[in-house]
Write a structure and sequence with these properties.
- This protein is mainly β and 127 residues long.
- The protein has a single domain, classed as Metal Binding Protein, Guanine Nucleotide Exchange Factor, Chain A.
- The chain is 8% helix and 43% strand.
- It is built from 2 helices and 11 strands.
- A hairpin with a 7-residue loop joins strand 7 and strand 8.
- It is globular and about 35 Å long.
- It starts with a strand and ends in an 11-residue tail after the last helix.
Length: 127
């Protein structure tokens, strides 16, 4: 299924290919828990930015490897390039339209990222 994703104001839009039933992760790390992000990691080939590249700003912290992409206008992070999967994109399921038929949420212990990151590496690989 092709989903359209966007920030709140619509200045940034993308499409992502994912199943009708989406398995995603809810992370307890500092940035994810504060923003309420639901992670859907896909290979780069399944993601396409449709508009708004000039409206995107990038935030990094700690190792600087994750590239958190925010809309400069409304501040929403609807996708980013994750540290765990630099060969893919991580989209916020809450920013997709339509919403998936079913959302299965798995808990991810991002507070102990170094011990658990390997559990995500397969998500950005082509099926």
């Amino acid at each position: 299924m092709i989903y359209k994703g966007s920030c709140h104001c619509g200045a940034v839009e993308y499409q992502v290919e994912a199943p009708d039933i989406v398995e995603c992760q809810e992370c307890n790390c500092s940035i994810c828990s504060k923003s309420g992000y639901l992670h859907l990691i896909v290979p780069k080939s399944k993601f396409k930015l449709l508009k708004g590249e000039k409206n995107i700003t990038t935030y990094t912290f700690d190792s600087g490897e994750a590239k958190h992409k925010f809309c400069k206008i409304c501040g929403i992070k609807s996708f980013y390039i994750p540290r765990s999967n630099p060969d893919g994109y991580d989209v916020n399921v809450r920013c997709l339209d339509p919403q998936p038929e079913q959302i299965i949420i798995e808990q991810f212990d991002g507070q102990n990222w170094e011990q658990h990151a390997h559990k995500l590496s397969h998500l950005s690989k082509e099926a």
